[in-house]
Design goal:
Helices cover 31% and strands 24% of the residues. The chain is an alpha/beta fold and 367 residues long. The structure holds nicotinamide-adenine-dinucleotide.
Length: 367
């Protein structure tokens, strides 16, 4: 193999450690430098992981860096992605791709013009859990998909995150924050969506920070819906029901289930790379746990490695901008549907990303 694809990380906050660690097993990538608006944060992370810290401008101007991994807060995603693209770099961004469709579209257009790639979290659908579900569906274990449910409910992130403000600003809320895991998994399993509708509400106009930091007790304003119920019609005919909520203290709902003409599939938490995967086919007396067909010993970073493989081998990347834009379009459409008392026809579409091959060696993808 030639020299690794050099990566620069912009945004050295809470999630960045997962990327420094998660990229490590992949020889195809090397994190060359890291940057943050707060240079001290970049220095701390740099020291921790043996990577040089620099300013955002220096990182973006570095001709050796081919992939910018953008781990800033949602409202900065488009700006940092566009700055990276303008310097001729491919960008892999934390979710969401952007806080609105227009910024998402501009990002994809700018990348196409420059001939660089765009990718966006989540990459969890490349983990053993969701890949196994994909294989079961594609192999016909549950027949034709008829319906699905997807539920993510809790009471928000102010109890643990050191700076939870962005979860209650545009680009946050349960749909823009957690929806990408659920929608990306569903689109990977069932294909693109053609129509959605939904209802949203905002229950608490402010939130109180309750984690043990100097900001304990501070109130933060809520600018976005914090509870959403939606319906999605997939192009393949399946119909899904979902709830995404930061307003529920407790529940007994599953994460994702898919109901087919010949059986049902229990999909594991799409915010992890793991199982368990369970199936109950017509005539079965109980659910059966299915051994995973793909490795669950992967983590955040597999999407960056996937992009590096695409750059080096000239193939499509799975964690790609078309998929991320379709998910962004869906997320925005639930709110539009609720505001306009209507179904929304989805204009965007995407291909289901290719399944990972089975039996990959650790630290490799497909080549
Ligand atoms: N925290 C988690 O558990 C988690 C999990 C999965 C995904 N994410 C996603 O990761 C992203 C970051 O979340 P986080 O929890 O790490 O946030 P954070 O607030 O802890 O860190 C964000 C960092 O980005 C920096 N930053 C902001 N704007 C910038 C800009 N324009 N240029 C350079 N640096 C900038 C901030 O200074 C900060 O250090 C979000 O999109 C979030 O949805 C977070």
């Amino acid at each position: 193999m030639g020299s690794p694809v050099k990566v620069g990380i912009v945004g050295c906050g809470t999630i960045s450690g997962a990327y420094f660690k998660g990229c490590d097993p992949y020889d195809i990538i090397e994190i060359k430098s890291c940057a943050d608006l707060d240079i001290n944060r970049a220095k701390e992370r740099g020291e921790e992981y043996g990577v040089q810290a620099c300013s955002v401008e220096e990182l973006l101007a570095d001709p050796e860096i081919q992939i910018v991994v953008n781990l800033t807060i949602p409202k900065a995603h488009a700006e940092v992605n566009l700055a990276g693209i303008a310097e001729g770099k491919s960008v892999h961004c934390e979710k969401p791709l952007a806080v609105n469709r227009a910024d998402g579209k501009r990002t994809l257009e700018a990348a196409a013009e420059k001939g660089v790639l765009v990718g966006c979290a989540p990459d969890t659908f490349l983990g053993g859990g969701v890949q196994t579900c994909r294989k079961l569906i594609d192999d016909g274990w549950i027949g034709d998909p008829v319906a699905a449910t997807a539920f993510m409910a809790g009471h928000g992130h102010e109890s643990w995150h050191p700076a939870p403000d962005f979860y209650y600003e545009i680009g946050g809320g349960p749909m823009f924050d957690m929806g990408p895991y659920y929608l990306t998994a569903l689109v990977n399993l069932l294909g693109p969506v053609k129509r959605v509708t939904g209802s949203t509400r905002m229950t608490f106009p402010e939130r109180t920070i309750t984690n043990k930091t100097p900001r304990y007790g501070e109130k933060i304003p809520v600018d976005i819906p914090t509870h959403l119920t939606g319906i999605m019609d997939f192009a393949n005919g399946a119909v899904a029901t979902l709830i995404m909520s930061f307003d529920m203290w407790a529940h007994n709902l599953p994460r994702i289930e898919i109901y087919g003409s010949e059986g049902s599939l229990s999909v594991p938490d799409p915010n992890t790379f793991r199982g368990p995967v369970k199936v109950r086919r017509a005539g079965d007396d109980e659910w059966r746990e299915i051994p995973l067909t793909h490795s669950d010993s992967v983590s955040r970073g597999i999407g960056v490695a996937d992009m590096a493989y695409a750059l080096v081998h000239g193939r499509k990347h799975r964690v790609n901008g078309d998929l991320a834009y379709h998910v962004l379009d869906l997320m925005a459409s639930f709110e539009d549907a609720s505001n306009n008392n209507a179904h929304v026809q989805i204009e965007s579409t995407c291909e289901r990303p290719a399944m990972l091959p089975m039996g990959l060696l650790p630290g490799t993808l497909d080549e």
